[in-house]
Design brief:
The chain has helices at residues 2-11, 16-25, 56-68, 96-113, 123-126, 132-136, 142-150, 160-168, 171-185, 202-207, 223-240, 268-273, 275-281, 291-296; strands at residues 45-50, 72-73, 76-77, 84-89, 152-156, 190-196, 244-249, 299-310, 318-328, 330-340, 343-346. It is of the alpha/beta class. The chain has a domain at 38-113 and 140-211 and 222-254 and 282-304: P-loop containing nucleotide triphosphate hydrolases (Rossmann fold). A nine-stranded mixed sheet has the order 5-4-6-7-1-8-9-10-11. Strands 2-3 form a two-stranded antiparallel sheet. The chain is globular, with a radius of gyration of 23 Å. Residues 20-252 form the RecA family profile domain. This is DNA recombination and repair protein RecA-like ATP-binding domain.
Length: 348
């Protein structure tokens, strides 16, 4: 019996064609700006931290559009991944009309420019459609729009227990698994799981952490236990589906960097004393999520409001600019972007 098991193990359980298909399916991919600096693989968990109204949800929407769009459609290159997006709305403020608006704009830009890589062009070219009448001359494909929206699966949760129920019993692990299997049967695979925002129930859970359940044979309802269970259920989901997790998180306290964000100055004394390495390991905000969530995260991004940006198109409108910095892995470059009707535009 032992010899048979050894021979079976040596023979393997997949062909070279099956192995290549599996490896190529899970290869690294790049999302569009501002999440384009680091290639992401299945199993990566990206935490996007920033204060309220710092365009975190806008980043999720733009990444979702990049995921649900196909690579090509009827000879037009859109540059998408053609995969499903699972969106868990914990803030309960998601605007589906904003998603629809940005998706239609992306389709219009792809048809108008003749390719889908509109974000790689200069800002003056991206905004070359000056008037609304000129934009409406290009008609996007309604069938493509409908198929993209079908790839966006939305779930709203009002508290941590409902999130746990969705993950463990109803929506994700059963209902969404069934919906995912139906979509995968049609050629679509799940690509990104989005959580907006992971710390939405922190204060209510913290307030109730001192309350114990009536039955003593169960765990007490504490913040740590709830987050640990959420992380466990997310890990189970990652085992079933090859996807990337994007989670936003608000800040309680955030340190301010100097105005010159692209060239932060460090004194020579810090280099000799080793303070640079120690400061790099400390996040520029007060961490409030339990250690189980911190250990689960593989990539970290922080977003800050920056100086107002003078619009190049009108010369009059001031658009609020934001800076995006990668903390893990730590990158030296800091991107600045604005948010307008079309979505996120990198300005420097």
């Amino acid at each position: 019996m032992g010899d048979d098991e050894a021979r079976s193990w040596i023979r393997g359980d997949e062909t070279a064609k099956q192995m290549l298909s599996r490896v190529l399916k899970d290869r690294a991919f790049l999302l569009i700006p501002p999440l384009h600096r680091v290639p992401l693989r299945a199993g990566n968990v990206v935490e996007i931290t920033g204060a309220s109204t710092s365009a975190k949800t806008q980043i999720l929407i733009q990444a979702a559009i990049s995921c649900i769009l196909p690579k090509t459609w009827n000879g037009i290159h859109y540059g998408g991944l053609g995969k499903l997006v699972l969106f868990l709305d914990l803030d309960c403020r998601f605007d589906v009309l904003r998603l629809s608006q940005m998706l239609k704009h992306r389709l219009l830009q792809a048809n108008w420019l003749g390719n889908g890589a509109w974000w790689q062009l200069e800002e003056s070219n991206v905004k070359s459609c000056k008037s609304a009448e000129e934009k409406t001359k290009t008609v996007f494909d309604e069938e493509l729009y409908a198929s993209c929206m079908k790839r966006f699966l939305y779930v709203r949760c009002y508290d941590s227990l409902e999130l746990l129920s969705s993950l463990k019993y109803f929506t994700v692990l059963q209902t969404l698994h069934y919906r995912i299997q139906q979509q995968e049967a049609c050629g679509s695979q799940v690509g990104v799981l989005m959580i907006d925002s992971i710390g939405a129930f922190h204060w209510t859970d913290r307030l109730s952490s001192s309350l114990a359940l009536e039955t003593h044979n169960r765990k007490s309802l504490s913040l740590t236990n709830v987050v640990e269970t959420i992380v466990q259920e997310l890990k189970k989901l990652l085992l079933v589906h090859s996807l990337v997790v994007l989670a936003t998180k608000g800040t309680i306290y955030e340190e301010k960097y100097p105005a010159n964000e692209n060239n932060r100055k460090v004194s020579s004394n810090d280099h000799f004393s080793g303070n640079v390495a120690s400061k790099a390991q400390q996040p520029p905000f007060r961490e409030f999520m339990p250690s189980s969530w911190q250990a689960f995260v593989t990539h970290k991004i922080i977003i800050r409001k920056s100086a107002d940006y003078q619009s190049l198109q009108t010369g009059q409108q001031n658009l609020l600019a934001y800076s995006l910095e990668w903390l893990q892995p730590q990158l030296s470059r800091i991107d600045r972007f604005i948010v307008d009707d079309s979505g996120i535009v990198i300005v420097s």
